[in-house]
Amino acid sequence: MRSHVLRPLWVVMGVVALILVARQFVVPEDFGIHERGFMYGYHRKSNEEEWKAFKVKYRTKDYCRDCHPDKYGENITSKHRIIQCENCHGPAVDHPDSPPKLSIDRSRSLCIRCHAYLPYPTSQRSEIKGIDPGEHNPDMECSMCHNPHKPDMG
Amino acid sequence: MTTLRGAAASALPLAAFRFLTRSEARAAVEGAKVRWGFLVDTYKCVGCGFCVKACKLENEVPYDAPVTRTWVERYVILKDGRMLADTPLGARDGFTGMEVQGVQVRKREIAKAFFVPKLCNQCENPPCVQVCPVGATYQAPDGVVLIDRSWCIGCGYCIMACPYGVRFFHPVYRVAEKCTFCYHRISKGMKTACVDACPFGARQLANLKDPNDPVTRVILTQRVAVLKDEYGTKPQAYYIGLDENVR
Amino acid sequence: MTEEWSVHGLEWTIKELFVYPNEYIYWSIQIVMYPLMTGLVAGAFVLSSLYHVFGQKDLKDMAKFSLVFSFALLIVAPMPLMFHLQQPLRGLEVFFTPHFTSAISAFGIVFFTYSMIVASEIWFVYRRFFVEQVSSLEGKEGIGNTLKRFIYRMLTLGAYDISEEALRKDERAIKILAAVGIPVACFLHGYAGFIFGSVKANALWMTPLMPVIFIMSAIVSGIALCMLTYIVIMEWKKFRIRTSSRPRQLTAEEVGGAEVDLVKKSSRYLLGFMVVAITLEILDLVFRGYTAVKSWDILRSVIYGKDFVNIFILQYTFGNLIPFVMLLLPGLTVRRTAVALVLVIFGVFMMRWNVVIGGQAFSLSFAGYMHYHLPVIPHSFETYKEGLFGALTIAVMPFVLFWGINKLLPSLRYK
């Protein structure tokens, strides 16, 4: 009888072979070492495309311009032109298909993101016209007096 | 036995283990025309938090979950030398009061105070990628570090390895999650959701490979700093007006 | 968004002062259990190898038992990781697409190699027994016996030669495997240390001493657990025979309980490794304090402040100092040893705890803290597996497995 000493080794090799065979079936084909080398670039290549295909939700002001020229025109000449429509109305996504209507956030908490006065000397925050939200007409919506699209009209 | 050996040999996934030579890898990276970077101007940030709101909605991170891909920190340094800092809910709702870390700060006590937006630095040597045991996170050729949600095992090693605290477990998908520089937007020629949402230009996206990119020019010609360079990660988010108190 | 969500770590993390929003205690109790378990594996194996390789004859009885026990521990060692993974079903990817720049990935390979070495060594030790069982069970009636014989036949791997010459070959193979196994066992556990020590983002973890500290404390815990289990089992058998009303096959004196001599000798090895382990840990602490780099302020406040009781009272005093004195004092008895061993294992557990949880007790901002509240009463699967009961499950598992394995591979003999 031949030496039995190597038998456990055959078992081990069998297990390794099993893993390698399973690997062929489980690991996606495009998994490998790509541009950034093994340390930083070992991945499934098609995942990059999957991230690129992620749904865009914020469409920026240009998307709003053609259908809402009045609001757009009013806003674009005011100090608030630097603020995206979607910051207050929410992401357009595929509006008007989906969602058919965008929300209008009239809450004070939206306006005081910038206009609660904070006296921070090395930040631009202190240069924004601000109020103390607890004292300045605390029960009223800001838009009752101020036009958010064009605040400088009063 | 020969059959076993044969099976083992044929199953060896040599194709997947093709190592690029050093020069090949360098050529592939240097040949790329895009390397995304970021510029934050802390003087311009007012702490409105619109960037955080936009990021969470754009990238489908549950709005009320206390984790976020980007956030804004507030630093208030008092005249007595104390440093107070906070970022409630990552500043999703902005900063609207004078209370910091439970301390009601009065105007005359403040020596300096400012806001610092944070996001993934898309490091040149990302330690989070180095430690992933399965190749589920990687650096794309344009420098952005991404996560393969279908391959991540959720061990959390990458979360531990990031010195900036950028990573977390996605509250729904239960895999590691991080800022992608809005990869779906920048690859279409758009800007990131946070850059678009910022009314003050405090956040800017840069193609560091393009010397004519106006943001890149700022990075190259003005005095900028990076966060925690002592870790050797070579972060690619640059900051104007960084203070020694910033963590 | 209306979908169901839950933030991992929110349940058991309490933040204090300035902590980044995404920071939570992501590595919780199961990651404490994981190095504890791999440490026990390595330690148990080293103890058995002391006999096989270095011919420490006094450890003969211990050797067989600790080898089989280390196999039971080995099966349990990956379980805390599986409990911890957010996607446990994908765990095998570590073998399919190993990313070797990651310590966890390399750990998978080392762990596989090591488990194969242990399994092979056990095979060589028990081969003769398997063959004898196959022939003695031949022709016996009953499904139980048939099944048992079938299992033993499988276990022989078809090698029925138990001639003198064949057995000598077995002996040599055992010696070689035990010798190769020691560095691999150290490498294995050193890697567990490397997993932590190489995280440069974590100020408490990052030290090149971490792998060595882990190896030493692993051997300490492994030896301690093997000794303790040995004492408990032998004393239990003695106790059972004394109180049993059935006619006795063996008298209590024949069984004899744990041997004081054996226990004394093993405890000397234990003391030696304890000295090295503690020296390294103190060296690490002293070095951190002396060099006092940027992170030292927050580390000091954690080590000497928030975690003082955990580190200096529970770990060093109860886990190291007291058992050290107990084992050194003259007139060592089995009972006193048993108490000391429990304390030693507790001390190693606290050391793991203080590394894993302590390393997350402070924020990456160095300006805030996180407190860990171990979930006790589970109210969801997550609070079970990452809570007290999950940890207890892991802690009990090696004994359950050993009980099962011991049915097939009896490793405890009477005098």
Unreliable sequence segments of chain B: 1-17
Proportion of residues in extended strands of chain B: 15-25%
Average pLDDT number of chain B:
91
Instruction: Specify the helix fraction band of chain C.
Output: 55-70%
Number of strands of chain B: 12
Biggest interface: chains and residue counts? Answer: A-B, 57 and 73 residues
Instruction: Give, in order, the helices and strands of chain C.
Output: EHHHHHHHHHHHHHEHH
**How far do the termini of chain C sit from each other?**
69 Å
Mean pLDDT of chain C: 90
Q: Ends of chain B: how far apart?
A: 61 Å
Write the H/E string of chain B, N to C: HHEHEEEEEHEEHEEHHEHE
What can be said about the biggest beta sheet of chain B? Answer: 3 strands, mixed
Task: Give the overall form of chain C.
Answer: globular
- Helicity range of the residues of chain B? 10-25%
The rounded Rg of chain B comes to 21 Å
Low-confidence stretches of chain C: none
Assembly context of the chains: heterotrimer
User: What best-fitting shape of chain B do the alpha-carbon axes yield?
Assistant: globular
Radius of gyration of chain C: 23 Å
The number of helical runs of chain B is: 8
Structure description:
The complex is a heterotrimer of chains A (154), B (247) and C (415). Chain A has a domain at 61-153. Chain A is mainly alpha-helical. Chain A is elongated. A two-stranded antiparallel sheet of chain A has the order 1-2. Chain A has helices spanning 7-26, 37-41, 46-52, 61-65, 69-76, 85-89, 108-115, and strands at residues 31-33, 42-44. By secondary structure, chain B is an alpha+beta fold. Helices cover 22% and strands 20% of the residues of chain B. Chain B has eight helices and twelve strands. A three-stranded mixed β-sheet of chain B has the order 11-1-12, covered by helices on one side. A three-stranded antiparallel β-sheet of chain B has the order 3-2-6, with no helix packed on it. In chain B, strand 4 (99-100) and strand 5 (103-104) form a beta hairpin. The termini of chain B are far apart. Chain C is mainly alpha-helical and 415 residues long. The relative contact order of chain C is 0.16. Chain C has a domain at 31-198 and 378-410. Chain C is built from 15 helices and two strands. Chain C is globular, with a radius of gyration of 23 Å. Classes of the chains: A mainly alpha (154), B alpha+beta (247), C mainly alpha (415). Chains in contact: A-B, A-C, B-C. Chains A and B meet through helix 1, strand 1, helix 2, strand 2 and helix 3 of A and helix 1, helix 2, helix 3, strand 6 and strand 7 of B.
